[in-house]
Amino acid sequence: MKEIKIDELKSMPEERFQLIDVRDEGSTIYGMMPGAISITFSLFDEKLDECLGKLQKEKKIIIYCQRGEISIEIADKLEGLGYDSYSLAGGYNAFLLDKIKNEDEEDSRRKAEESIRKKFHKTLFSPFAKACKTYELIKEGDHIAVCISGGKDSMLLAKLFQEIQRHRKVNFELTFLVMDPGYNKENRALIESNAKKLGIPITIFESTIFDAVDTIEKSPCYLCARMRRGYLYSKAQELGCNKIALGHHYDDVIETILMGMLHGAQIQTMMPKLHSTNFDGMELIRPLYLVREEDICKWRDYNDLYFLQCACHFTETCSTCHEDGTTSSKRLETKKLIAQLKEKNPFIEANIFRSVENVNLDTVIEYKKNGIRYNFLDTYDN
User: Fold this and answer.
1) I want to staple 19 with a disulfide (CB 3.0 to 4.6 A). Which of 36, 48, 193, 299 is the partner?
2) pLDDT tens digits along 48-99
3) Is 309 found in the same domain as 203?
4) How many domains does the chain have?
5) What is the reported pTM?
6) b/e sequence 265-297, b meaning 16+ C-beta within 10 Å
7) Is residue 138 part of a domain?
8) Which residues have CB under 8 Å from 8's CB, separation 6+?
9) How crowded is residue 29: how many other Cβ atoms within 10 Å of its Cβ?
């Protein structure tokens, strides 16, 4: 096994090595190391010759995954085929940590905040404020726990809350809450570093969720998501909060609607706010409800920010599990489908979103309300 550390890689002339990102597509769409090419790890088993055709044998081949685990196997395989191959120690996370530690925190915070007020005011702050007003998400005297997972969505959510609080139109309190469900030290360091860099005063508490679901074979993501939600409610309530805010955005909403139909045989949506059924007086709110993911990515890239996507320690192939328990493959498949439909109909996304605002019960065969099922035959003869 041959490994190379990020400091060694940085000191090496770029023309001497080739960077290969072997993470799945659900991860690479959120960012790659500069100059890297993507060859998903599974292709080295399924289409080896095709993969080898993309490699420059005269150079050192540097393989990286998310945490430096899968890359070791592929580097060893290539070495056996005569390539001078290395695994990047710590993987993409090591690159992120190195980038963060070498940046000026004050400049980063100032630039990120200024970009929200100016360059991205129309695409980020305005739809955020509109959702808060339209769905009555923020009320006088609220104490909101902004739940931060470490990804781009929750980090932006925190900055938008700081900005709207600065306007002082409504008096409310904020607690920026981070739950550590059993992160490795690198993942936790990434969250702490980014929060400090962006001027977000986080409150961290620990749980043993990863240990609890470690032995679950069926739907560990779903169970993990449910447990995380419960822990966040409980801690937020303990801290005197009456609401928790999650970072789901517009694209999450339309993907959930379509996934419900295609995979769940049901019509439902991700609501902008919900009363908790298990924690009295607590609500869940989604202030990014009208914010497009594309615009979040533009803000991230403009400010040269790099965020944690998922800290799941079960497998590197589960790099972008969603908060609702759905895995990256199913959500990515739906995201691609919507993109394909949009090529022929530019209004497809808005139509999916609005479809759950225009439900005509006179044309619905059956529906449920408060757990009771109603059939059109119940009143048909009347």
Assistant:
1) 36
2) 999 999 999 999 999 999 889 899 999 999 999 999 999 999 999 899 888 8
3) yes
4) 2
5) 0.86
6) eeeebbebbeebeebeebbbbbbbbbbbbebbe
7) yes
8) none
9) 16
